Amino acid sequence: MKTIAEPKNFIYNMTLERLQDWLLEQQEPTFRAAQIFDWLYVKRINNFDEMTNLPKTLREKLSKHFEFVTLDEITKLESKDGTVKFLFGLHDGHAIETVLMKHNYGNSVCVTTQVGCRIGCTFCASTLGGLKRNLNAGEIVAQVVQAQKMLDPSGERVSSIVIMGSGEPFENYDATMDFLRIMIHEKGLHIGQRHITVSTSGIVPSMYKFTDENTQINLAISIHAPNDKLRSKLMPVNRRFPFADVIAACKHYIEKTGRRITFEYALIGGVNDQPEHAEELAQVLEGMLCHVNLIPVNYVPERNYVRTPREDIFEFQRILQRHNVNTTIRREQGHDIAAACGQLRAKHMESNAR
């Protein structure tokens, strides 16, 4: 079997503060960190030799200690609505998905934080094959940089980020937080914190930890059911972190930060989309500073779930709104290019297994 060499430390792994510490260790002035960030995230170069305002000796040190993340573009699918879905190959042969979505208010990138996923949601293609490994911060950063490079010729920029791709970001907490710090830094891509959303399936200890980070980054929770029994059936993670504990962590977040929380609810035909489910959910969320995002489930052949009829979706929304629960229905994008998380990677894995 061919062995794959471990890469050097990826330069995209380095927050500005960590880069300053490294420069001190190398007996180099710390102001160089901001220059390096400018080359990486403003000029978006691919080679340390291009950092022409750095001394040659420093460029040589950078080249010796670091390397750039290589995302090999295996597949790129473009939807009629402008959505672009990438399947990227990593240095170790694994593959991940990234999606660039075009909205009337700007361009959004949906990033992946893990190769595969172990959460086991029964309606999601990302869990097929289980979890292979965590991504490091640099591999998450590179997804946004790659999308931005695609936009560069037209003068557009990435204006928002959603951490809703494959994997559970709060089970890869440190790398996810480093990624966020790099994204929001004024010397880097400088994405506004309120234009970034991190989504979790309800990893309760990490939810409390994130609350204490004191950021303006949006938090979204995948719930998909109004009670423990149904949620455990759809989301095995609920057996580790029961629904009541997730809701308690959400209330703590709202109380401490004063920020609204988003609940994501995938509607599955005949499973969790009945009026009684909407009534029960409304009771759970009563009085909370929250917003419910209803998601018509994407058909995944391996899961055999069906979509909720259109009128039933609107009725579910009406019931929540009657109880003063702010509710929207997610606009679908990339429906013609296997846009559901994990579908493109699953097809790639299947073809490689033949």
Report what the structure shows.
This protein is α/β, with parallel strands linked by helices and 354 residues long. It has 2 domains: 9-67, DNA polymerase, domain 1; 81-353, Aldolase class I (TIM Barrel, Alpha-Beta Barrel). The chain has helices spanning 16-25, 32-42, 56-65, 137-151, 173-184, 204-211, 228-234, 243-257, 275-285, 310-322, 343-353; strands spanning 9-10, 66-67, 72-78, 84-89, 95-103, 106-110, 114-116, 131-134, 158-163, 196-200, 218-222, 261-267, 290-296, 326-329.
Secondary structure layout:
Blueprint: E1 9-10, H1 16-25, H2 32-42, H3 56-65, E2 66-67, E3 72-78, E4 84-89, E5 95-103, E6 106-110, E7 114-116, E8 131-134, H4 137-151, E9 158-163, H5 173-184, E10 196-200, H6 204-211, E11 218-222, H7 228-234, H8 243-257, E12 261-267, H9 275-285, E13 290-296, H10 310-322, E14 326-329, H11 343-353
Parallel strand pairs: 1-2, 6-9, 9-10, 10-11, 11-12, 12-13, 13-14
Antiparallel strand pairs: 3-4, 4-5, 5-6, 7-8
Helix pairs in contact: 1-2, 4-5, 6-8, 9-10
The percent range for strand residues is 15-25%
Tell how many strands the DSSP assignment holds: 14
Q: Provide the gyration radius in Å.
A: 21 Å
| CATH-defined topology of the largest domain | TIM Barrel
Strand order of the largest sheet: 3-4-5-6-9-10-11-12-13-14
Q: What would CATH call the architecture of the largest domain?
A: Alpha-Beta Barrel
Structural class: alpha/beta
The outline comes out as elongated
- Count of helical stretches: 11
Poorly predicted sequence stretches spanning 5 or more consecutive residues: none
Reading off the top of the CATH hierarchy, the class of the largest domain is best stated as Alpha Beta
Percentage of residues assigned to helices: 25-40%
N-to-C CA distance: 18 Å
Q: Secondary-structure element sequence?
A: EHHHEEEEEEEHEHEHEHHEHEHEH
- Specify the CATH homologous superfamily of the largest domain: Aldolase class I
Domain Radical SAM core: 103-336
Organism: Marinicrinis lubricantis
EC number: 2.1.1.192
Cofactor: [4Fe-4S] cluster
